[in-house]
Description:
Blueprint: H1 3-37, H2 82-87, H3 99-113, E1 125-127, E2 130-132, H4 139-150, H5 172-182, H6 192-195, E3 200-201, E4 207-211, E5 216-220, E6 223-225, E7 238-239, E8 249-252
Antiparallel strand pairs: 1-2, 3-8, 4-5, 4-8, 5-6, 6-7
Amino acid sequence: MSAPETTQRRRVLSRRRVVALATCLAAVAALAVVVAVGGDDPRSGGPAAASREPGQSVRDTEEAQAHPEPSSAEAHPLAASPDEAATAEEGISPGAPSDEEVRRDLRELERYYGRRPGAKGGGVTVSGGYAQTPPGAPRAVEQAVAGGNAIARFPYRWGGGHGSFIDDAYDCSGSVSYALAAAGMLGAPLASGDLAGWGEPGRGRWITVYANAGHVYMEVGGLRFDTSGRAGRRGSRWQNARRSARGFEARHWPGL
């Protein structure tokens, strides 16, 4: 091989090495960014990682599960104020269970927990996507359930319910804030991180709010109220299924 050919070959190999090195550096930089922000790539350990425990990310862990409405969807009618939802004329809510269904669910809860439902705040049931409080439940619990029922099937929207309680869609903290406001336990909507400081520490007898910087849900009488895990875009926020509370602060209202 002549000297000019050798020189040319060396230049080509040198350029290839530079390109390869630049590609590697770019890949490392991209991975660093994904890890830093906790992205949705399962390899990053972000919210979509299958091994992540619920509530471990500072981002809203519900985003991929909350079934947000498409931009083409028609606007949902506005909700009433929480006060109106809690003081509406009493009657059977749409889809509310019959007395026999309530008694049956209470018996099932008693067998599951090995105690009398209601003795420690148990016995709130769900049928048709709406919750029903057992006889003898505190008035504040009835009001929180009424508030939850009022927006149980509303669409999900990030930031919904924060500019005002009266909205046409609600995110996780907007939903919990609305139900708590209906019971007179909140005067203005709070974000998830702020709800981690609401009320008093620990689980409540009737109502427990589980919150961290990225997500919030609550349990009322053993029934979960959560925008994550719903069945479809208009699935009810009321759910029988439990979820891990690891990484969440448990808070309750004094006396409840």
